[in-house]
């Protein structure tokens, strides 16, 4: 069977810590988890044709990444590579730049390809020389991928994803590599695993840290808040949105509700339109509250424009802290640059 797009990529399910060696077939293989765009690259087979680049959701996006499509013409025909598209900004990965690339077309896409070149980090292969490999064990697919890189002398924009079988090394990666913006954590696979499209058969482990934010709004009601929206003041004294929490546990609901105060006129977020998730346009209904509570949150490393892209986990109220003691908002922290768009898309 020759693979043709769209093909659902194999996915990973979240874990808090490293699974035991016997959790996956054949023992564990660990790779860094990069914060990019999951993509599949198809080189033509059996007849000549264009290179196709597919997003995780099945869209064809080669027109948005003409530099990658052009570079893929140097690959042999009949291959399907699975990996992550990223954009480097100095020594960091810039998700903000990647977003610009992914949303641009036509002349803008060509211009951005020059200014913000894309790179492809390959971590699996689904087809080689027109032969489908989904049923082959991961270790065999990896060997095929390594032969592609060595045999064709692949260099930028192509990168072979590092991996290790040593759990001590993997733990060191989780502690040290995730300090680089754009490296979120680890992906764990089984050496004898088949590739199962659309199945969450791998594990992902994100590095998580603690941080503080000022409670500026909630979803739900003042008496029964469902989640909290957290901000930090910038140098001009403007309260900037930095995170939205996941759903609160019942104990946290009671604790927060007992301390919330309705917002007085002139709340810094009056008139701001919030959305349900990062990059979404779906409106989120919120209730503004007086920004006098500080919350500790459990966050991962994915940040853009100083805000966490993924929902934070509420840990506790910091009654020992006042809002002016919370770390100052920094739009340059994390892989993004510039200021937030003010839409509350977190």
UniProtKB/TrEMBL annotation:
<dbReference type="InterPro" id="IPR044119">
    <property type="entry name" value="Adenylation_LigC-like"/>
</dbReference>
<comment type="similarity">
    <text>Belongs to the ATP-dependent DNA ligase family.</text>
</comment>
<dbReference type="InterPro" id="IPR050191">
    <property type="entry name" value="ATP-dep_DNA_ligase"/>
</dbReference>
<keyword id="KW-0436">Ligase</keyword>
<dbReference type="GO" id="GO:0016874">
    <property type="term" value="F:ligase activity"/>
</dbReference>
<dbReference type="InterPro" id="IPR012340">
    <property type="entry name" value="NA-bd_OB-fold"/>
</dbReference>
<dbReference type="InterPro" id="IPR012310">
    <property type="entry name" value="DNA_ligase_ATP-dep_cent"/>
</dbReference>
<feature type="domain" description="ATP-dependent DNA ligase family profile">
    <location>
        <begin position="120"/>
        <end position="237"/>
    </location>
</feature>
<dbReference type="Pfam" id="PF01068">
    <property type="entry name" value="DNA_ligase_A_M"/>
</dbReference>
<dbReference type="InterPro" id="IPR044117">
    <property type="entry name" value="OBF_LigC-like"/>
</dbReference>
<protein>
    <submittedName>
        <fullName>ATP-dependent DNA ligase</fullName>
    </submittedName>
</protein>
<feature type="region of interest" description="Disordered">
    <location>
        <begin position="322"/>
        <end position="346"/>
    </location>
</feature>
<feature type="compositionally biased region" description="Gly residues">
    <location>
        <begin position="333"/>
        <end position="346"/>
    </location>
</feature>
């Amino acid at each position: 069977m020759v693979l043709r797009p769209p093909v659902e990529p194999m996915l990973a399910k979240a874990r808090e810590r490293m699974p035991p060696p016997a959790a996956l077939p054949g023992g564990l293989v660990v790779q860094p988890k990069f914060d990019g765009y999951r993509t599949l690259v198809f080189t033509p087979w059996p007849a000549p044709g264009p290179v196709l680049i597919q997003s995780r959701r099945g869209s064809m996006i080669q027109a948005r990444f003409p530099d990658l499509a052009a570079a893929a013409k140097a690959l042999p025909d009949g291959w399907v590579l699975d990996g992550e598209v990223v954009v480097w900004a100095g020594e960091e990965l810039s998700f903000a730049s990647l977003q610009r690339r992914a949303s641009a077309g036509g002349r803008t896409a060509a211009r951005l390809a020059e200014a913000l070149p894309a790179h492809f980090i390959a971590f699996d292969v689904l087809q080689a020389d027109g032969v489908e490999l989904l049923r082959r064990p991961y270790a065999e697919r990896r060997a095929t991928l390594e032969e592609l890189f060595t045999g064709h002398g692949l260099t930028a924009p192509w990168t072979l994803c590092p991996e290790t079988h040593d759990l001590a090394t993997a733990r060191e990666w989780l502690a040290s590599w995730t300090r680089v913006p754009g490296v979120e954590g680890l992906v764990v696979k089984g050496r004898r695993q088949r590739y199962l499209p659309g199945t969450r058969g791998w594990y992902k482990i994100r590095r998580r840290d603690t941080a503080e934010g000022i409670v500026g709004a909630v979803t739900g009601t003042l008496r029964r808040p469902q989640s909290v929206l957290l901000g930090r003041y910038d140098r001009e004294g403007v309260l900037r949105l930095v995170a939205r929490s996941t759903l609160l546990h019942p104990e946290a609901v009671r604790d927060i509700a007992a301390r919330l105060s309705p917002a007085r006129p002139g709340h810094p977020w009056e008139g701001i339109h919030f959305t349900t998730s990062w990059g979404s346009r779906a409106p989120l209904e919120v209730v503004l509250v007086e920004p006098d509570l500080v919350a500790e949150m459990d966050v991962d490393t994915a940040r853009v424009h100083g805000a966490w892209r993924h929902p934070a986990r509420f840990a506790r109220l910091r009654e020992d802290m006042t809002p002016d003691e919370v770390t100052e908002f920094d739009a340059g922290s994390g892989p993004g640059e510039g200021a937030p768009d003010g839409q509350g898309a977190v």
